[in-house]
Amino acid sequence: MITRRSVLGGSLAAAGLPLLVPGSLARARARAAEAPSPVGRAEPFTVPMPVPSVLSPVSSTGGVDYYEVGIRKATAEILPGIATDVLTYDGQFPGPVIRAFSGRRLVVRHHNDLDMPVAVHLHGGSVTRDSDGNPMDVFDPGTSRTYTYENRQPHASLWYHDHAHHMESEHVYRGLSGAYLLTDSLEQGLPLPKGRYDVPITIRDARFDDQGQLVYAMSDRNRTTILANGKVAPYFEVAARKYRFRLLNGSNLRIFSLRLSDGTPLTQIASDGGLLERPVTVPVLRLSPGERADVVIDFSAFPVGTRLVLRNSGPGRPDLVGTVLRFDVVRTADDPSSVPAVLRSLPAANELPTTAVTREIVLNMDEDGRPDPRGFVNGQLFDPERIDTTATFGTSEIWNVTNANRRTLHNFHLHLVQFRVLERDGVPAGPTEAGLKDTVRVAPGETVKLHVTFDSYRGDYVYHCHMLDHSAMGMMATLRVR
Asked: Fewer CB within 10 Å, N side or C side of the chain?
């Protein structure tokens, strides 16, 4: 069994990275606070936004697709002209896109070429226990681990990332994440934008020192450089037609509130677990860390030469965090795509399976200013030897998730299942949260009511705050489905 001490002792210290244990966190924060940022060198809209490449299988036999991925250190040109050290899947920042089809098995063999343990979690995936990427189920430097994904669930914009406990926060921050786009015949049969007009975008924040290197410190609120697919305030050339953008908030802590600069609303068509039942028009789209939303933007109403900025009005100074990317309309194009009035069928709240149990889940962390704050679920720090919740396979439950903090926002992620958000503080969930979800934000003092069904796999899985700095502080617990 990998213990907390062995994970910490053989990982970040060996890599020459900050060892975030009591007494060192304050020093790491002090160093981060003293480090100036070269963000001024990165003028907005001077570099194009790249589209992550799609990973090709090494073989496809017997209805199974096989992939090989190397987890290794590399450099990326995040700031123009500067080589920044990053952690990568196959040398890419962010990682390559893996495309999968429901009902078709996919096998990925990850090679750990780092000098620290890792665990790969398919976020939002319904997977067997041994392929979930449990935070304690790590594999060591110089070894490999094979993950098998049966893909029994419907279409969804999923993502994969490191989940090695106490290191997940820093590993993801330094680059260990990528998109996993699962589709099915239902989604493929709709006339939504496809191919080059279906674009994944990971939005996140970062902080750099005066050498252009990523600065990491737990709970750092000064990550004020906003990246889109690994570039600072890039531009993206579009045709005057509809595009589908698969947005992922890949930050550790930052909440994004996204809107177009001219006030044109976004058309949200999907959330974490796939398509909504109906498209929703939203002037501002809010995403907490780990959440996804697919939106359609129709550029046909804009003449060639139009420039639209995707802005962020979430927490932080607008002059620092307010610009995400710019869309440049550069040509006309035929557009056979459309957004149907009905995208899929989902049961209404009163049609969901009867629940056998109601549980109370309380998230909170130290807010007293101590240098090494701790995170708790129901008053307890994460202990991998402890089973916190036991559910019966084939049953449904109500989970009331409460944020007990007065100032700190949390969000909640449950492995294995996609749940339904029923209420926020007794008020029915809004239309953007009416679909399948695996991550949901919870404001200070707020309670979110979830409907959860355990009908896919048995085993031990975790649930935690997906503000990854918080889960690394201990805000995580273990669920056993039996």
From this structure: N
